[in-house]
Predict the structure.
Amino acid sequence: MSDSANRPANPTDIVTLPGLADFAPQLAQTFVSIASDIALVIDADGVIRHMAVGADPIPGSTAQWVGRPWAETVSGGTRDKIGELLAEAESAGVTRRREVFHSAPDGQNVPVSYSAIKLGPNGPVLAVGRDLGTVAAIKQQFLVAQRELEQDYWKLRQTESRYKQLFQVATDAVMVVDAETLAIVEANRAANDLFGGNQVTLVGQGATVGILRAERLGVEELLVMARSSGRPGEIRVHALAQGGLDNPLYATVIDISATPFRAGDKMLLLVRARATKVSSEPSSATRLSDFVEQTPDAVTIADSSGRVLMANPAFVALCQLPLGSETHKVVGRSLIELLGDPQHTLISILTEAKSNGLSEQRPATIGLTNASRFDVEVSAALLAEGDQECIGLTLRRIDQRAIRDLSGHPDSEPASKLASAVSDLVAQIGQTSLPDLVAAINDAAERHIIELALSQSHGEHQLAAEILGIDGVALWQRIHYLGVGMLGHVRSTPPSLLN
């Protein structure tokens, strides 16, 4: 680089436009109309003598700037830049851009980027500015939109993860395996269905039972590695086909995970297995959400102290919260607070699942008051894959009275009533067509079941819907269609049906 590039400008290098000095106000107006937001005409003392603003004026009291030193219109931290602009315009004729801040009435600083040109040796300085607040606002809007997109993305990921975890709690085959002998200590019903075959029980069998023989060594290696490393692992293998058929063509593809945990002084392995499809179907997340949202089984995941972390709608309904309550209203609350535990069975189940890894199919009575108590079947399993130890629970409502009545118990008056109605319809054979008879029998059975549910819920419409495992609005529609005899005794009416 030559020395001339570094030396200060001399009078012969100055860019001057002396012929335009008299037209400084008109130039200022022209600049703001085509390329800037504000233009100032500054005299030799640095005082603003004329000002022109664009269609979108800069926030602030710009109308009061004329007659004031330019440096006084900017914040204290950028006043030195005004001096630098004027000095550079005096020495070089034109300046590079500098960013300063004007104070707005709301106390905010408005960033403006100025460049200036000297109009002749004795003429004024024309300073042209660009409001950077608009650019900053656009950048801020972009950042906000980007942040919202990221939040929506992570919210979607969290929702998918929630559905996946609840789906696994409700459907996974779970086994507790002795880490030393690799023998099954406990197994849930799903594990017996998947691996049991002709076995009466899986307990006492080797952990590779139900796996294709050619792949059992890989499963054993997974279990041994989890035992020795203390870290979870996963493998994809094939389960034997129904009847114990050892043929890959008919086998079920499953993912098996093994997570070590301690029960006292004993090392155990929590083995979870889930059937999978080797495909790239984009609707898998939708299928998971549909299952979790629609299954009548109440599914929830609680932390080690029994506080709900996530739950499906059936669990919310089981808590007998007000109609329309959403899932987030149960999160953070304890299972005992939500469900009641008069016999302390839920506490026992949680303790067993934490210590043994699994508590399978135990009856429990829940309900916060004597009038609202009912029986459920509960299974629970330890979820030790993540950083936080959790318990997954599945609760299925059972009602022995409903089972007795629907089975046609001889002492059951409603059952006798249904049998009588069916007998009357059967007597019409030969007089009524088969499709009409079948439809009438179906209506009679449905009417009978709805009346039972209303009777058991003491006329509480929503509770009857929960007993039947259907939506409350759908139940009300069926009540009207079938002309259920107990309609006049229903104590709660969905507002949406009264509009």
User: Anything to note?
Assistant: The longest helix spans residues 132-171. The CA atoms of residues 173 and 430 lie 51 Å apart.
